[in-house]
Design goal:
Blueprint (H helix, E strand, L loop, with lengths): L4 H26 L2 H28 L4 H5 L19 E11 L4 E11 L5 H11 L19 E4 L2 E4 L13 E5 L6 E3 L2 E2 L2 H9 L9 H5 L9 H7 L10 H5 L1 H5 L6 H11 L8 H6 L14 H5 L6 H20 L11
Parallel strand pairs: 1-5
Antiparallel strand pairs: 1-2, 3-4, 3-5, 6-7
Helix pairs in contact: 1-2, 5-10, 10-13
């Protein structure tokens, strides 16, 4: 804190000047100012020397903390300070990229130095900035919220920003490729147009019989904690598309609406504020929706937010069975099935 002497001396002057005036008044009252004046001179000389040293350090020699404030600070991935003790390790990142001449995907190796904080996305950005600027990557938030950086790492669909490079490397190598359930645009970037169309097809939004009420409701739609908890787990979906890529049915039947859209059907079906009822179930009551699911469970395994699409689809099947029983017994909406 040597460089702060100059400022400290200014603060000291603000305190000592009134003190000197008080001493002068005291010395005049005692009619013996000599001793007090000598004390004032000694304090003033000491203060000037102290302030002069601080001034030289800050503005002339440029030493101390003033210089350190202008020095760039080394920051590691995600704002962390680099781990000096851990050191770096060279990892071979094998990217499966499309070869335009041969019309096929081929592995292209790159070397990246990584520490225990380095993610797959960090490695890809390092490759793009320092080795191959033609590499196409899609990303945004870098913290597992937007879902933009979905890709396949060592055969498993993941978010690159949440996947550690060292933790997932095997024998100093890691394989990265684009998702397979979405049309390839370039390198690791895939087309999500069909994904969003399927999501849109299930009418993802609260339905109210009185549409005017939504525009000018007298009050908010109140819910109990139990009512909210019923659908809350399915509302965490960030639409990253990983569940679609992991689903074997999506990869074999392009018309299958997929686990992401079906989990959102369950999200709105369980919402106490929604009034669509069995009509919402009718939208997905076909072989390309609920009844096309083979319950592999891969969709739930890869979800980065803990949403369970596989369980949601089975719950929809159960609710549809209940509706069939109600219709078969001639019961209206709201009647209970007697077991």
């Amino acid at each position: 804190m040597k460089a702060s002497r100059y400022m400290l001396s200014l603060y000291a002057a603000m305190i000592l000047v009134p003190l000197f005036l008080a001493l002068d008044v005291f010395a005049t009252a005692l009619s013996s100012p000599a001793g007090i004046r000598i004390l004032e001179i000694l304090i003033a000389v000491g203060l000037l020397v102290y302030a002069g040293m601080g001034y030289l350090e800050v503005f002339v020699n440029k030493k101390g903390s003033a210089k350190s404030l202008n020095r760039p600070v080394e920051i590691g991935p995600h704002g962390r300070m680099p781990d000096k003790k851990a050191g770096g390790q060279d990892i071979e990142v094998e990217l499966r990229r499309f070869n335009m001449e041969k019309k096929r995907l081929e592995l292209t190796p790159y070397k990246v130095n990584a520490n225990r904080f380095t993610t797959v996305l960090d490695a890809l950005l390092s490759i793009k900035s320092g080795q191959d600027s033609s590499l196409a990557i899609r990303y945004s938030c870098r913290m597992g919220i937007c879902g933009s950086c979905g890709m396949v790492v060592n055969g498993k669909p993941v978010l690159a920003c949440e996947t550690g490079l060292l933790d997932n490397s095997k024998d100093g190598k890691i394989e990265v490729e684009p998702m397979q359930a979405h049309p390839l645009l370039k390198d690791l970037v895939t087309d999500f147009d069909d994904f969003f169309e399927k999501h849109k097809s299930i009418e993802p939004g609260l339905y109210r019989k009185n549409t005017a009420e939504q525009r000018k409701a007298a009050s908010e739609y109140k819910q109990s904690k139990e009512e909210r908890d019923a659908y809350l787990p399915y509302s965490y979906c960030i639409m990253c598309g990983l569940c679609m890529d992991a689903c074997p049915v999506v990869n074999s039947n392009p018309k299958f609406v997929g686990p992401q859209a079906l989990s959102q059907v369950q999200r709105y079906h369980l919402d106490s504020r929604d009034q669509k009822g069995e009509k919402r179930l009718n939208v997905v009551d076909n072989l390309d929706s609920v009844w096309g699911c083979e319950f592999a469970g891969a969709c739930s395994e890869v979800c980065p937010k803990g949403v369970d699409p596989a369980a949601a689809i089975q719950a929809l099947k159960f609710d549809m069975f209940k509706e069939y029983l109600n219709v078969g017994k001639g019961k209206g909406k709201g009647d209970e099935v007697q077991g």
